[in-house]
Write a structure and sequence with these properties.
The complex is a heterodimer. Chain A is built from no helices and 12 strands. Chain A is mainly β. Chain B is an all-beta fold. In chain B, a hairpin with a 5-residue loop joins β4 and β5. Chain B is globular and about 40 Å long. The chains are: A mainly beta, B mainly beta. Chains A and B meet through β5, β6, β10 and β11 of A and β5, β9 and β10 of B.
Chain lengths: ~120, ~120
């Protein structure tokens, strides 16, 4: 069975400093991995996804993530945090279900706070 | 990406009653899912809404408690029955439009989420 672990429940950074949100996954085969963001009282938005193409994936709003098979990691980074980045971030692995779509398995989430 | 709306956006209900949540998509989609997000928690898949057949429920969720309808390719409903305070959560629908024929490759397709329905049971 596939699973995903977000190593930090809360991360706090200052505006303009780098962001690192850590995620480790467990998968029996080549996984599909996603990062979603949830702003307060808003729905989930897809930031980026990895599907066995380039290991460095670029997403929206300056975020990117690197797939490292040897470390089973898919950490999310951004060079410079903005106040609007404050939100809950979910690392997600997709499990293929025969004749259906992918079943999404969510990590527990990391709350990102950005200080002025 | 598909545009997804949910009704109601929020509701406060009394225990023992039922609430039906609607999910509407602006285009035909093959797959629709229902998730629950309990306060301060992550998302958990409740079921896959199958068009023309019964929904497929995940472990811990049963049809009597969460009946689901999927009458066509753009619409689905989730009912939360005989509610208790433990059912207070955000309920989200999601859709995926597979681009690949192979079921294995479908795991690569991103899901798009509705805005959610915030339910409080008193």
């Amino acid at each position: 069975a596939q699973s995903v672990t977000q190593l930090d429940s809360h991360v706090s950074v200052s505006e303009g400093t780098p962001v690192l949100l850590r995620c480790n996954y467990s998968s029996s085969y080549s996984p599909s991995l996603f990062w979603y963001v949830q702003h307060p009282n808003k729905g989930l938005q897809l930031l980026l996804k990895y599907t066995s193409a380039a290991t460095l994936v670029k997403g929206i709003n300056g975020f990117e993530a690197e797939f490292k098979k040897s470390e089973t990691s898919f950490h999310l980074t951004k060079p410079s945090a903005h106040m609007s980045d404050a939100a809950e971030y979910f690392c997600v692995v997709s499990e293929a279900i025969y004749n259906q779509g992918g079943k999404l398995i969510f990590g527990q989430g990391t709350e990102l706070s950005v200080k002025p | 990406s598909a545009v997804i709306s949910q009704k109601p956006s929020r509701d406060i209900c009394q225990r023992g009653t039922s609430l039906t949540i609607q999910c509407q998509v602006d285009s035909q989609v093959t797959m629709m899912f229902w998730y629950r997000q309990q306060p301060g928690q992550s998302l958990t898949l409740i079921a896959t809404a199958n068009q023309g057949s019964e929904a497929t429920y995940e472990s811990g969720f049963v049809i009597d408690k969460f009946p689901i309808s999927r009458p066509n390719l753009t619409f689905s409903t989730l009912t939360v029955s005989n509610m208790s305070p433990e059912d207070s959560s955000i309920y989200l629908c999601s859709v995926v439009q597979p681009r690949a024929a192979s079921p294995l490759w479908r795991a690569r397709d991103e899901q798009y989420f509705g805005p959610g329905t915030r339910l409080t049971v008193t």
